[in-house]
């Protein structure tokens, strides 16, 4: 069997455990053609890391070429709200616009702002765990993993508490478009969410312009008004990206991390015995071991060569983060969970100009949620039944994780 044939991102069995297929892909070569999506799969750590930094590739090509010049079909006009919202966010901008927007956003999204959030993050995490404990258990995804980062992002942006229930459904609908070959209903749901989220944020921006507060939206408005270099659409797209990208890693690492630990009771016991000593390396290892974002796509803007294979301009490469994080050429015993692993340059947050701006916040949230669940006063959790995985491979996570105390 052609090893590319074992790469089946629409298969539930593959989504549940893609790692054996990745090992076969790495043995096959450094660039593997995958006909169903018309992409070159890149499974090795060194290549993924290099191509994330290679300026001959981009998240978009529209800063240099039209769709026609690049040999691509323009998206349907009815998808325009999604592409406008997505295309003006940091994740899909390229220089010089990316450098301009990132510099202005970084002025607002500072380490000091993240540090100031730390007590709030711990308080929210503790409250969610207390509620789960009072119920005797429940679904860890809906009780802790999802509400924590949504509440934190909402707090960061200044979204009123009464409106926060809107955010997760909008985000889930938009993120459906990041999957491979999304269908018409997925696209319609994403477009609806984009229109509604865009309108909501513009109204919130108008309110903050009238009455500024100590939140990120007010800081972005200041960057826009003082420098005149951040458009309102870029502000809106940045806020949406912070929610979408800023909480998916936390949700999926929280739930997936506990599922990993439940299957390794000796490692869980060691973590529970001394969480203060182990937690920081454990969070990094859980993100490496079962990567929440499995694939990151980039366009080839000028011909490149990977392992002797010429990949021409106009192609798309699929950088397999999950495979890179299990590459034995970079990680010792990559298929073993080692919660005290110190040599751990995982690629979960990307690299290069698109390295995740929210990585410090994600780490803070993960330390808070795992720390709250491992606190001495919280009885050990037990798994009720084997969990289900959500449909979707690119952003990969559990649909539910039922636990009891």
How does this model look, in words?
The chain has 405 residues and is of the alpha+beta class. It has helices at residues 12-16, 19-28, 45-53, 80-87, 97-108, 111-134, 140-145, 147-157, 167-175, 184-210, 216-227, 232-262, 265-273, 275-289, 321-324, 359-373, and strands at 32-34, 39-42, 57-58, 137-139, 295-300, 304-306, 309-311, 316-320, 382-383, 388-389, 398-400, 402-404. It has one domain (3-404): Cytochrome p450, CATH 1.10.630. α8 runs antiparallel to α12 (232-262).
List the helices and strands and how they pair.
Blueprint: H1 12-16, H2 19-28, E1 32-34, E2 39-42, H3 45-53, E3 57-58, H4 80-87, H5 97-108, H6 111-134, E4 137-139, H7 140-145, H8 147-157, H9 167-175, H10 184-210, H11 216-227, H12 232-262, H13 265-273, H14 275-289, E5 295-300, E6 304-306, E7 309-311, E8 316-320, H15 321-324, H16 359-373, E9 382-383, E10 388-389, E11 398-400, E12 402-404
Parallel strand pairs: 2-8
Antiparallel strand pairs: 1-2, 3-5, 4-12, 5-8, 6-7, 9-12, 10-11
Strand order of the largest sheet: 1-2-8-5-3
Query: How many strands, what sense, and barrel or not for the largest sheet?
Result: 5 strands, mixed
Number of domains: 1
Question: What class would the helix/strand composition place it in?
Answer: alpha+beta
Helix coverage percent: 40-55%
Care to give the gist of this entry?
Helix content is 51%, strand content 10%.
